[in-house]
Amino acid sequence: MKRLLTSLLDLIYPNLCLACHNTLVGNEQFICFSCLSRLSFTTYHLEPNNPIEKRFWGKFPIHRATSLFFFQKETTSQLLIHQLKYKGEKEMGEMMGKILGERLKTSPDFDVDVVVPVPLHPRKLHKRGYNQSEWIAKGVANTLEKPMDTKHLLRIIENPTQTRKGVYERWENAAGIFDTIDTDFFTGKHILLVDDVITTGATIEACAMALQKSDSIKISVVALACA
Q1: pLDDT tens digit sequence for 118-149
Q2: What region holds the Double zinc ribbon domain (predicted)?
């Protein structure tokens, strides 16, 4: 009976791929296998000193960094990020986070203690209704079987969007916008920072500056996409 009802609902309200809008079939969720195959996946989780990590050299002591795929304009990657950030498809972020988590499990370098999403300012969180990085982090944390923390790293300044800013403007826009509470919470931990897209890395750097108020920490960074 349950299977029959599901089939009837699929006929009335078909599940469509968020990228190509074709009907999902079988085990497909949110994105069809064809669109998934068109993503340009990285192998940075297996490559120490990769290009993402080099963006942070000299800025803070980065342990490891990776992204699931490369961000390219006018491609499936841009469509998916847009759906996640602006169209309310947060569950898709969790699913992609699980895929990212499975890749991290193949590298001993990502044996972390706590998963921390890049926070939104409370006003932006209220306006959007969800933090897309938190949903990605949820998928990663569940797959790695590690706790996720959203209480101890805070965005204290609501800065303007970074989208149309240059490298220096992004750094200037992000400086000092995060802080931590109860610094003892992170002491001695390997922290996995999770974002949606890494571009210049200014936001991640600002998070790291706040986290470094805690002693003896390691910081690794992951994102769905890197530009």
Answers
A1: 999 999 999 999 999 999 999 999 999 999 99
A2: 8-43
32 shares a domain with 133: no
Does 103 lie in the same domain as 88? yes
Considering the domain architecture, whether residues 115 and 211 belong to the same structural domain is answered as yes
Contact between residue 211 and residue 118 where contact means Cβ atoms under 8 Å apart: no
Assess whether 118 and 79 both reside in one domain: yes
Q: How many domains does the chain have?
A: 2
What is the spatial distance between Cα 91 and Cα 81, in angstroms, rounded to a whole number?
12
**Biggest distance spanned by C-alpha atoms of the chain:** 61
177 contacts: CB under 8 Å, gap ≥ 6: 155, 156, 157, 159, 206
For the ranges 18-22, 98-102, 174-178, 219-223, the lowest mean pLDDT is seen at 174-178
pTM: 0.89
